[in-house]
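Most newcomers find our protein records easier to grasp once they have seen one. Sequence and backbone structure share a record, each on its own labelled line. Nothing more is needed to start thinking about how sequence determines fold. As an example, a complete record with its sequence and its structure tokens follows.
=====
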Amino acid sequence: MLGLNKSELNLNNYDLQKNVHLYRQGGLNIAYDVNSGSLHLLDDKTYAFLAELTDLQKADPALLENGEKLLNTAGCSLEADEKEEIVQELAELQKADILFSREAEEVNPDYPERPLIKAMCLHVAHDCNLRCHYCFAESGSFGGSRGLMSLDTGKKAIDFLLENSGNRPHCEVDFFGGEPLLNFDVIKELVRYGRQRAEAAGKKIKYTLTTNAVLLNDAVAEYLEQEGISVVLSLDGRPEVNDKMRPFANGKGSYDRIIDNILKFIAKRPNTSRYAIGKYYYVRGTYTHYNTDFYKDVLHLADLGINRISLEPVVAPAEQSYALQPEDLTQIKQSYDILAEKVLEYARNGKEFTFFHFNAGLDDGPCLPKRISGCGAGHEYVAVSPEGDIYPCHQFVGQQKYKLGSLNDSPVALDNEKVQSFRQANIYAKEDCRRCWARFSCSGGCHAANVAHGGELTKIYPFGCEIQKKRLEIAYYLKIKEKMEQTQRFQTVS
């Protein structure tokens, strides 16, 4: 038995499975320390030793309370001096609080009594010039009648945002639809009105517009550029993939109509942010059961010179032919693996592009309360329909069960019970999240996806969780690889 000093490496009552994630990616052995956010590259023997410690603790819960016995039980295949060296190195990392770090205290975020709204999704158009088969908004109508937001309703929405933003100096408005450019004249008036009202209140509004690019002509593009409006452009990738799911009402595909508009627009923004801050663009697509090899779609976009790309898994009822199925998961993960190596390969060849979900955010990500609670839908972020109804986010619009209030009420007040339900739907209210290694990065997943698949805010969407965890593993892997290649370049130069 190895004579270990408990004070050197103390694993008493430390849940390894919950707080240290071990995995292999791209030939590397990686340990992610959940509470500190630190990443560690391990040799084979250290990785195997940590994996054995975790497995032993899982198999015998009594070892959770007896760290000394756990350490003495593990590592029988190691030479005594090898084990001693590994344990001492691990102890140094624990002392630095970057491995086996102290578990974050389980506390609920402290919110003000009155919700402070920081961002709004303004549905200026519940109509669309496309008929995308997977559209959660039912081709723009959101299950209701088609129509455009009036200027008066838009002004009320901006007033509501500014009046309910507290002391926040910055607010955000996303023009959304349907297709918002169907209501372009109102958008221009709302931008002008919002800037005036924000300036009078000592604030600034950051605008974003999400568009399918059908109407993104030179005049519109120039306006968006002059006003510094960030833009999310919708395109699914390869022409045959895009046109299968994103046709016009007459069934004709949309790729040929929009690709030139997109390329001309992004040429105006060569230095857009990889983290979607400031004035940026992203080309955002959706992958389905029909293209689980979606890495090819990402590379198609990258080869066109599009260097800010996001591709999301479709969220759809299982009975839909395009819905992702459990048997798709292996191919989906393989696509992410291939894409990870392509990100590195393209960067080496001077063709850098960013895949949004591979941005780890370990260094400049949100604070712990934000990591616990997620996006803020329903209390910090709201969506407003063309009629002036207020919902927790764009994916809840039209669902009366989740309607928070209306701009037509006097005074305008959000339903407190519903607000509280969203505030309380944090990772500690979700049983599956409490011990998950990804809890502080995933924040419990998308509220709307959870409701769509589990019927409740606190019932997670397991398939979505698996995808999210895979993307996080790759994000951390890429962070390590980028650091390794930077070091190699430095050594080569020197």
